[in-house]
Amino acid sequence: MNAPLNPAASGASAPREEGAAARRLSFILVFAPFALWIALVILVPQLNLFFLSLREKVGPQVYVLGPRNYTELFGESVYVLTLVRTVVMSLLATFATLIIGFPIAYYIAKIARGRARTLLFMSCLLPFWVSELVRVFGWMLILRETGLLSRLLQGLGLVDGPVELLYNDVAVMVGLIYTSMLFMVVPLVSTLDSLDDALVEAGYDLGGNGLVVLWEIVIPHAKPGIVAGAIIVFMLNLGNYLTPTLLGGKNSQWFTAQIYSQFITRFNWESGSAFGFVLLVTSSLIVWLALRASGQTLSGTIGKG
Amino acid sequence: MANDLECRALVKSYGAFTAVSGVSLAVPKGSFFSILGPSGCGKTSLMRMIAGFIEPTAGEILIGGRSMRGVPPNRRPANMVFQHLALFPMMNVADNIGYGLRRRGMAKAEIARRVGAVLERIDLADSGPKRIDQLSGGQKQRVAIARCMVLEPTVLLLDEPLGALDLKLREHMKVELKQLQHQFGTTFVYITHDQSEALVMSDQVAVMNAGRFEQVGTPEDLYYRPATPFVAGFVGDSHRWGARITAQAGSDLRVETSTGLALRASAVVPLAEGAASSVFVRPEAIEVRVADGRPDPAPALADVNVFAGRLESLLFNGANSRAMIRLARGDLIGAVLPQNLLGTRLGEGAAVEIRFAAAATLAFPAGGDALGGDAP
């Protein structure tokens, strides 16, 4: 009785196993580029940096394991102040980007229709067709002593002589906001797009004014987009090197510039690695705190956006 | 009694297109008023003008006797139940209902008391802390109404709020809405394309077509005494013929249909001999008899139309069952199947006789009718 059943059973399971093997293979093939990218570009260099940062130089070519690179960083007030300043400026720039980006996103998502909508969205994207370097030089042409804005102010008789508008915190802020605006507008547009117009109308109909509707209905709805945009923009600001250096000049005191000088100028890779790691931990910590404070999760914000 | 809502010669045009052209209406206090019309007839524009979301091109709206010109939606004593309800998903049930009260700067304790009272009234006393997505379709409906009623508006506007519900719940909500309206005693203005919603719930119904009111009246008026061919075709079922008047004496007409039938009919508006006409007769006005050769117990009167035909098919639908009867001239007429014929062996193809009174055969001037043929 069993004899005819067995071959049938094994005959059915053999192709199933084959199918499973094929699926596993195709999964590995599809997953491989992503895994390689994560491993080779992110994981391995980070681990390498982490080990480098824990090496203390005791003599030429002689190293021991220890936390001296970190204690040196936190012992030197200039470094700590630079880190704090970078974080505060990045947060401010992120907030300013949100304040400027929100009405833009609202207009694109809710008010503009058809071609105007596409055109506006494109014009947010347009600056990214040229390299960041060119964009920053563009701002330098506008802000420098003999630049457009300075001439305009002189022409209008508002100032007596040429004014230097470059190499200050405001110039850095302007550059940062300009560079990261798109990354705030895109997630905001996508969340505001999903807001039912009837909710806004109901908000008015039941007695709310514009401010109330914005605060009680539009912003709570857009929260995932706001958090997603803010995280991306904050990370971009914190890790930006070119914009603060070129627009802020020697006074910019951006933490990435410190990392650069450790690696390149002082050729102190161990210390530079420690600086890099401190920046990574700081930004992760702030993002975590922001997510906790806003009651969002990473998968609910960036994941959706 | 005073009118809670009045519209005077209201016009709304978008460029060359006129969505609402010269609508006037008056809704007495505490009544249930429906605006019934096919999609695109302008009823949504009319409602949005009353709510204040769009400005009328011309005309005036009065709510509670006060002109609403230049009054923004958040200051009008009218609240709206939206088509998809538009409950705020970012707030719980109690906060949704309390939203309007908070806008009035009411004290927290007073808001909580009123929200609790209205929740009790809609049988959702314990649902205050629930999220919106934890409610069923019918409960959401009640919360949406409660959210407006707690503000004690002069007029409650309802924009097809039953459209998204399934059939069974819709039937139930019709009754419940009517009860809620009785309970609160507020004036309801209800727009819909579903005639049964309008007929069941309303005190007064306005039938709207192409930006105008065709007829305003009680559901009985619209059904039995339609004023225009559009209303006759749109409200309820009817059989419609295109016809020509062959003789006329007062409102008594003799007409010949395009299929060649000679009918006796009554004119709804004066019609002259020779005029083109649309003639309507309702399925329940048609009496079906088995033509068994025996003499008719009630001999044909001068004002009854009698035709012989064959039963082509029986469409069983409970109390709404239909007999489709093919006349000699080729017309296919639906009649309400009498209960005594339902049980009999009356087979398809059986010879039958139909009769319908001239008074139930309504003639209108041709043209302007909604859909032609059998209504929706």
Radius of gyration of chain A over all CA atoms, rounded = 27 Å
Q: How many individual helices of chain A?
A: 13
* Unreliably modeled segments of chain B: 369-376
How many structural domains of chain A? Answer: 2
End-to-end separation of chain B in angstroms reads 36 Å
CATH class of the largest domain in chain B: Alpha Beta
Order of neighbouring strands in the sheet with most strands of chain A: 1-2
Number of domains as seen in the coordinates of chain B:
2
**Mean model confidence by pLDDT of chain B:** 86
Order of helices and strands of chain A: HEEHHHHHHHHHHHH
Overall shape of chain B: it is: elongated
State the CATH topology of the largest domain in chain A: MetI-like fold
What structural category arises from helix and sheet content of chain B?
Answer: alpha+beta
Q: Going across the major beta sheet of chain B, what is the strand order?
A: 6-7-8-3-9-10
Q: For this structure, what is the CATH homologous superfamily of the largest domain in chain B? A: P-loop containing nucleotide triphosphate hydrolases
Q: Secondary structure elements and their pairing?
A:
The complex is a heterodimer of chains A (305) and B (376).
Chain A lengths: L4 H49 L1 E5 L2 E4 L2 H8 L1 H35 L2 H12 L6 H12 L4 H8 L13 H25 L3 H9 L4 H30 L2 H7 L6 H11 L3 H26 L3 H4 L4
Antiparallel strand pairs in A: 1-2
Helix pairs in contact in A: 1-12, 3-7, 3-9, 5-10, 7-9, 7-10, 8-9, 9-12, 11-12
Chain B lengths: L2 E12 L2 E12 L3 E5 L6 H9 L6 E6 L2 E2 L10 E4 L11 H11 L4 H14 L15 H13 L5 E5 L7 H18 L2 E6 L2 H7 L2 E6 L2 E6 L1 H6 L4 H6 L4 E11 L2 E6 L4 E6 L8 E6 L5 E4 L13 E12 L6 E6 L4 E5 L2 H4 L8 E7 L4 E4 L11
Helix pairs in contact in B: 2-3, 2-4
Protein name (chain B): Spermidine/putrescine transport system ATP-binding protein
Organism (chain B): Ancylobacter amanitiformis
Family (chain B): Belongs to the ABC transporter superfamily.
